Structure formats: structure tokens, C-alpha cells
Amino acid sequence: MLFVALPLELLAGRPDADNVAASLAWLERNAALASVTAGLQLSGGALLIVAVTGFALVLRRQVGPALGSATVFGVFAGALFAAVGAIRGNTGAIQYIGSFEQDWAESAYLATHLIGVQSLLPLAEIAASGWLIIISIAAARRGLPGLLAVGVLPAVGVLAALLAKFAPVLTAGDQIGLGWFLHIGNILVGVPLGIVAVGIALLVPDAAARFATGLRSHQEPK
């Protein structure tokens, strides 16, 4: 639910979100779809909070500092994803403001775009990546080495985002370079597939039991 919004909008001919005039025109033609995709992001973020919290509750006192930190990252990511959906759902308000003055609509759109897509969404990606990285390492240490793979792309994506921020050599002149592609790849592929992989693995009774057993044996004093 979290990650189908962009593909759905692209299939409907969504222009570059940084193009204000084209995006406003698209929103006028596809207001219903924009509301649906925003709702998917909001509800998906809420479901992520439930899933992360439920995972922590299942383990209860078996959760150590590492998995406790992962839970914080996961809940924070869910809250940010939900906030992005709520902000992007203001299509009606933008159109109403635009009925008074077109320039106001452009300013309102830019505000929601900069706050939601350009600011909160990358933070949500980094937080979700942190959750996946810690979970994948913990799972590998507890007899599920296959889950280590789900943390690879998120780790690379986070590293690339940090390096792109502090090492401009990773970006081209228009800010679309290696760091940008890894960042987008992590949003569209790494994080969603990682969340799905962890969920599927923990739904398998044997895998869930091995994870819990390994966690208990790891924490028990020898």
C-alpha cells in the first residue's frame, strides 16, 4: 500500500512532481486518484506502525537494545509515511486556494511538495531502512542468514544518501547522479521488498520459531 502510489500515478501520466504548473494541471484532472494514492500512503504508514509494534510485542521481553532501537526506527518510519500521505491528500484545499488566485495554488502545492515528498519521505525511507538493517542483522545472527539480504539495498541506499549529502561527487550537476538513483531504488525496491520479505519470513512458523529461539538463547546467560 505504501509503495503503489507512485506507480499508479505514473501510469496515469503524472508529470515530474517538481514541475509545479504541470503537476497542478494533472491534479485537476486526477483529483480522485491523487486522493486514493494519498490515502494508501497514510493507511500504509499506519499499518507499518501496527506491524512493527506487533513484531516487538510478539517478542516481548526477548527484545534487546538492538531490536528495541529497530522498533523505534520502524514506528518513526510508519508515522512519517502516514504524514506524507496526509500532506499529499490536501488536493482539494490546493484547488480551493487556487480558485482565488493561481499563484496561491502554486505556493500551496510547493509547500506540500517540499514538506511531504522532498523532506518527510526521504526521512521515512531512512528510518524504514534502519529498521530493516537491524532486523536483517539480528535475523542472520539467530539462524536466518537469508534475511541478511533484505538489509543490503537499504544499507547501500542510506550510505549513498549520506555520501550524496556530504560528498557532491556522487551527484551530477542537476542533482541526478549515483546517489539519486540508489535513493530512488531504495524507495521503490529496497524498502518495500525488505518489509515484505521480513513479513513473509516471520509468517513461516519454522522461521519465526528459529528467530525467537535464537533470540532467547542469545540473551540467556551461559
**Helix amount, in percent?**
over 70%
Put simply, the count of helices is 9
Could you name the ranges where pLDDT drops below 50 across 5 or more consecutive residues? 215-222
CA radius of gyration is: 20 Å
Global shape: elongated
- Write down how many β-strands occur, each being a DSSP E stretch of 2 or more residues: 0
What separation lies between the terminal Cα atoms? 44 Å
Q: From the helix content, strand content and strand pairing, which structural class follows?
A: mainly alpha
Major sheet, described briefly? none
Number of domains: 1
Q: SSE string, helix = H, strand = E?
A: HHHHHHHHH
Q: Give the overall pLDDT as a whole number.
A: 79
**Strand portion, in percent?**
under 5%
What's the SSE blueprint?
Blueprint: H1 5-11, H2 20-29, H3 31-59, H4 65-88, H5 91-98, H6 102-141, H7 152-166, H8 178-203, H9 205-219
What does this structure look like?
- The protein is mainly alpha-helical.
- The chain has one domain.
- 78% of the residues lie in helices and 0% in strands.
- The protein has 9 helices and no strands.
- It is elongated, with a radius of gyration of 20 Å.
- Mean pLDDT is 79; it is low at 215-222.
- This is DUF4386 family protein.
Summarize the structure.
The chain has 222 residues and is mainly α. The protein is built from nine helices and no strands.
Notable traits:
222 residues, mainly alpha, 9 helices, 0% strand, elongated
